[in-house]
Amino acid sequence: RMEGWGSYTLPTGTEYRGELRDGAFHGRGALLFPGGGTYRALWQRGVPAEGRFAFADGLEYAAEKWRYCDGYDRRFCSEICAGLRAAGNSQLTNLDPPRKIPEGCYDCGDGFYNPKTRIVIDYELRFLRNADDEEHEWIIRTCRKAEEGALGQRASP
């Protein structure tokens, strides 16, 4: 059984780094998710007693008084931390400049989605999953699509 300090990679690619006792997470440790998020916690026999989740952009999740993208304040974390830009120079994503999306695809938050093949690949272009009908419709309706023409260039007015 795993004992002491160590790391363990789950089949999903999520990695645990921290203290272990009798084969379970026990003590201080963190789950590092493939998309960049991190959950740091104090574990007791494999169950988190207390913990905090931080997204890949550094924004920490708060169960109460969550103010990020709540309908009243639609700013990205980077805009909350660094301030808004001048009118006409708004950010499209939390990353600036935004990721370049392959032609005909969508950025669905954890990777790129090709509606013709219905496949989601991660940002390193590795297979993640096949999208079902519900996810397909949600991505088409809500996610940012590659711009027409040259990748990453805006059309002139």
Automatic annotation (TrEMBL):
It is found in: Cell projection, Cilium, Flagellum. Signal peptide: none annotated. One of its GO terms (cellular component) is motile cilium. InterPro entries: Morn5. The keyword Nuclease does not apply. Its main location: other. Keywords: Cell projection, Cilium, Flagellum. The keyword DNA damage does not apply. This is MORN5 protein. The gene is Morn5.
